[in-house]
Amino acid sequence: MLMATYAHHIAHPNLAYDYLGIAIRIAYSTGINRDLDSASAAAIETQAALRTWWTLYSLESELCLEYGKPLCIRETDAKAAYPHEPLDLAANASKITFIIFMAKLSRITRKIIDLLSDISEKGLSMQSYVGRLMNHQAELMTWRGELPVHLSPRDSVPMARLYVMENTAWIQRQYYEVEIRE
Fold first, then answer.
1. Which tens digits make up the pLDDT trace of 68-81?
2. What is the DSSP letter of 47?
3. How is the chain split into domains, by residue range?
């Protein structure tokens, strides 16, 4: 995972994707992608494994979205629980909170990637997918609303302006822009 991150930051996308694939397969072989034994859920090793899994999951979403590569992790393979927040840390100030919220954002991102792939492959009009896009937008707005203060964006854009996606023409323009980039 560290080599994938390093390769990503030095602009070697294929190498980053390869290293990430290796890390994902190691995670699969160790079983950290599944629900681990609930009796040992508090164990330090179990929590470290969960943090590793969800970091891999989020990193894959980021790299695949940025580089236009196919996702390796299927949603049906991501059965692990989110890691537990340590009780002794101040509320909403944990690094684990960041991992959890990135994983949740990655789940939404993957749904959008799947939808855009579906639109591209089937060649159907955007009109038939507007409802699903609006649902994903609502999920993003909910995710953003649940962010703890220390993770919230510090922009001055009012939340009402974020609903610009409701305009179907805007969605159509975004689809064409994505299509042009491919």
1. 888 899 888 888 88
2. H
3. 1-84, 86-182
